[in-house]
Amino acid sequence: MSSLSTIPRHMTDPRLTAWRATVAGRAASYVVGVVLLGGAYYAAAKIGLRLAYLDGAVTALWPPVGVGMAALVLFGPRLWPGVVLGDLLVADLSSPLGTVIGQTAGNTLEVLAGALLLRHLAGAGVRMDRVRDVFALIAAAAVGALISACFGTASLRFGDIIPAGQVGEVWRTWWFSDFSGALVVTPAILTWARSWPWRTTRPRLLEGAVLLIALVLLAELPSQRDVPYAVFPALIWAALRFGPPGASAAVLIATSLTVWNTAHNAGPFVRESITDSLLSTQLFMVTAALTSLVLAALTAEREGAGEALRQDILRREKAEQQLVASERATRRLADEQMALRRIATLVAAEALPSAVFEQVTTEVGQLLSVPSARVVRYEDQAHVTIVGGWTAERDFQGLPVGARVPLDSDTVVARVLRTGEPERLESYEGVEGELAARLRGMGFRASVAAPVHVGGRIWGVLVVSARDPADLPVGVEERLCAFAELVAQAMANADAYEKLASSRSRIVEAGDAERRRLERNLHDGAQQRLVTLAVYLRLIESRLAADNGTARDLLAEARQQLSDALGELRELARGIHPAVLTERGLRAAVEGLASRSLVPIEVSDMPDDRLPGRVEAAAYYIVAESVTNVAKYAAASAVSVAVRAGGDFIVVDVADDGVGGADPAVGTGLRGIADRVEALHGRLRITSPAGHGTRITAEIPLEQTVG
């Protein structure tokens, strides 16, 4: 683990971060970490020697142990060479080499073993805020101190620095010194490092300052010799109020002052012998550290449990609220779906639009709990008509059904017409116009409207109004749109039904007219000629005997009359259904039509292959009717005809350069073309600007018409 890995990202330059990701960067970072740890270990050792007894020979507290363990826990065990470096810097190199090596090895193993054991027992993220963390620290410190005491005492003995009779005393002092250093210094570093960044309040800072003053005063009171544990109230205060960081800092300060005073023959722990002074001081440090750390951990656990309980209560309350909201939403959705289903059933039954409007406004008003719901139809750009409505009070006097009002205000109805989207108006105050005045007179302050689109245009709006804008929460627009679509479907059905009825009527009328035309043509044309032929034949019969010359003339006239009658019959048959269309196909039929036309016709892009019979017949009659209209009304000098087959449909295009202005609503010709195209599920476009000719384009699908 890199020695710089715990530096907050916002404190590092991106270029530095990128460089550290390289091999050279990682190596340099590691070296820096080792050097920094070595320096910190050396500084802590120097401080510990300043607290030593007998001119630096014996110390009750060895801080480097705590510094090393905390560093390896925070930054990883791989920085252990820093402990070796720091220990060698502080070592007495005048001692035998074996003694120096043994002490350095013991101190390094102590720190490494203690850090590994603490990470194993409490986790790498140990914060000393659990009782198990404190006991893990005790175990790790005890094991580490045991290793160091054994190595150190053995090194001194084998180097003949201490006599055999002092081995036990030296071992005990060494173990207590290292154990105390780990127990006092390690928690202070860990808790404050884990608490970064440090944040506090002014009252908290003031309380901390008072606590520090009280702690120092209690530790330095002259009367403390009689009350050696007078600092414990301050330690308890720190543990209860400031948690593990406060407790560890208070222990570090109190024990440092105690060791300093004892080393200078002051304080409550000075005894007749240096050994007794050391032991009493070390017991005080261990007791103070354990008491404060355990109490702080218990406090943190209690606060954590309380916070967890509060969070659990909040989660439960939130879950209950969400459950209630979900149940409400489910009920609302179910009610909405049932309302939509009732309206859809009405629409599917092809009910009258007025019945659909009444049902929609009733369902919307009751579902949204609003006092008013209406369906409004746009008459033009300046007027609207109320075609359906519902109010909770059943009072339509303000805007009754059938009312026609000017669209001269900035109401939601006018806004929807401009934007084509759902609109909301929070207040009618200051809005001018008759519609706004009527709504204000009814006590309404806010409205929401959704457009009703029919046939690609805005037919009207579904609008709800309320006396308080809060009664129209966010989301009403989307809910209105669902009902507006049903209104649109009802109008589309009504329009389709009306068109179908009109189409059927026109087909019947066209059939009757065609039969009358056939009857008239047969009566006035072929029938009369045949009658005349019969008369001529009777004359021939009566005069054959008397005058052969006259008979010959009459026979010639009869032959001519018969030829004319046959021609008219052929022309009549060709008008009903030309034989060439059946025998030779669409190209030949259209070319024959062009050859007989009084207006020049240019034929292009005709399909070479035969098409389905119904398609050929439809295409031919579209061309024939269009050419007939051109000859009768267009005053055109030329006509172009094209029939293009592409994919699953054919396109019939007839264009002229006549006067234009053709209106499908006038006459039967264009309506007949439209009926024929719609009957084959096709599409018809008529473009006829006045003075610029007419173009008729029909798209007829092939798949649906085969067979």
From TrEMBL:
InterPro entries: GAF, GAF-like_dom_sf, HATPase_C_sf, HATPase_dom, MASE1, Sensor_HK_TwoCompSys, Sig_transdc_His_kin_sub3_dim/P
Record carries keyword Metal-binding: no
SMART domains: GAF (SM00065), HATPase_c (SM00387)
Catalytic activity field: ATP + protein L-histidine = ADP + protein N-phospho-L-histidine
Protein EC: 2.7.13.3
Record-level Gene Ontology MF annotations: ATP binding; phosphorelay sensor kinase activity; protein dimerization activity
Keywords, sorted A to Z: ATP-binding, Cell membrane, Kinase, Membrane, Nucleotide-binding, Phosphoprotein, Transferase, Transmembrane, Transmembrane helix, Two-component regulatory system
Gene3D superfamilies assigned: 1.20.5.1930, 3.30.450.40, Histidine kinase-like ATPase, C-terminal domain
Protein's UniProt keywords contain Kinase: yes
Main location: membrane
Protein name (record): histidine kinase
Residue span, Histidine kinase/HSP90-like ATPase domain: 614-704
Protein's membrane topology: Multi-pass membrane protein
Subcellular location: Cell membrane
GO annotation, cellular component aspect: plasma membrane
Residues of the GAF domain: 352-501
Organism of provenance: Capillimicrobium parvum
TM region positions: 27-45, 57-80, 100-122, 134-154, 174-193, 205-222, 234-260, 281-300
